[in-house]
Amino acid sequence: MTAFELPRYPFVRPADLDTVTGPLCYPVVIIGAGLTGLTLALDLVRRGQRVLVLDDDDTVGVRGLASRGIVWAQRTLDIFHRLGVGEKIVSKGVTWNVGRVLCRDAEVASFRLQQEPDLRFNGFTNLQQYYVEQFLVDTLRATGQAELRWLNRVEEVRPGGDTEPIELEVSTPEGRYRMLADWVVGCDGSSSRVRDCLGLAPVVFDRTEDRWIIIDIVAKNADIPEERWTWLDCSANFGRAVWRHRMADGTWRLDFQMSPHEDAEQAASEAGMRERVRRLLGPDVAFDIAWSGVWQYRHESLASYRHGRVLFAGDAAHVVSPFGARGGNGGIQDADALGWRLSLVLSGRAAPSVLDHYSEERHQAAMENIRQTRRSARFVHPADQPSAALWREAIVALANRHPLAARMINTGRLSAPAVYGGRGTEATAAAAGAAGGGQGPVNAAVGRALPNVRLRSGDAPRYLHDLLGSGFTALNFDERGARPQPETDIAASVALQRANVRAWCDDAGWSALERQLPAPPAGIWLIRPDGHVLSTALSSDPAEQQAALEEALSS
Known about the structure:
alpha+beta
């Protein structure tokens, strides 16, 4: 039973099946219309590129029994806003203000999330992934710049040389066809066909025997507090962990850690799931099961996310456990970091070597996500790790009396924006700092995502990200004067937009900048097309600004 009717997208016979002059060639083909692939496609379209997306399914949100995302972090909401779907997601989704952690059924910690009036979005929104993907599909189709081919399964990928197109063989309900692509992006999940065709295997850091069952329910008569509850050693779940989240449509996600010797088939049966839910919520609760799935997590990553003209993003590049919602949010950050670079390459405004920077940065981010989720996994269930178990018991015992101990409870640190420190940020910041005589990369803001601070309130609020262009942006925090329209110059064949931040601020907005920016708002900051800070010491000399951009796009 489901509370949401998944959309079905029709198969449309591609022209490639009928061509008689040889395979057609496309600038970029994205394989996989899941969360990462759709986000990347929309990002490229917003940058003026035409995109072809292939998917072997005919709907959204269904990827076997894999866990589906529901928690969208603040950085993700900022990215979605730039792409034109952020407000839809926030409007449809829900947030909770109170979270509680229980251990052996006794509450050991609670916290209240605060509103964040300084920023466009609060810390997160809960929404089922199939809604997010449907919003992305609808928005893509409305642009008229993206072709989404449903029920088109990639069977073979044959890479060419450094300058040769990639050959793809695709099967459909009406036969097979061959096509060529200048660039291919594998966004086809943790069992990536693209990866297999290239003979690539990820580095596996660990494969756990730990199993979980997700049961999404629509409760009919249960009085469930609209709070996020996490149980450690829950008596209603055989002494194992449980999560409870609220989502859209009055739906609750219940995530149960399974016992080691539990039979997965029986646990996933209708009777088994209903028994499990009633043990947790009470014997009289009436509910429908909206979705369910059994899953195991692992941590793995490709060593590189670029192999010639084939790129990887999302679960095809790296897999992490769901603790802290770092899987889906991480895939969206992949698309955010890749889209602007690939667009520059497609337009001939940057060398393909800038895509190596994408691989370096996002591999670094994946390693951080793996590190964080492994810590959470050890805390949630220390298993046969005596030292970890003793550590957790000590923290739990102190949490009710000591705020510091309560903050150390780690049931999943929520996905945070990556801080980039590879050659694509440090080298450019150093060059810009030297040119401008400023601090360069020692400034705490360099490499970080720019917070989307509210600059002006009232009927027409203004936010910091509203001043960013689709290319690079020079934000001047010093110059005052009348409110100008942002200027656009061409430097190094890439648009550089300029904006005087003070001119757009009211007093409250400037105070918010001082609170929220990772470094004092002063000087000229160079912002990348994905909103990360490249330098906080940009010179006001246009020639030196051009040199900084050329450095950013050089190999």
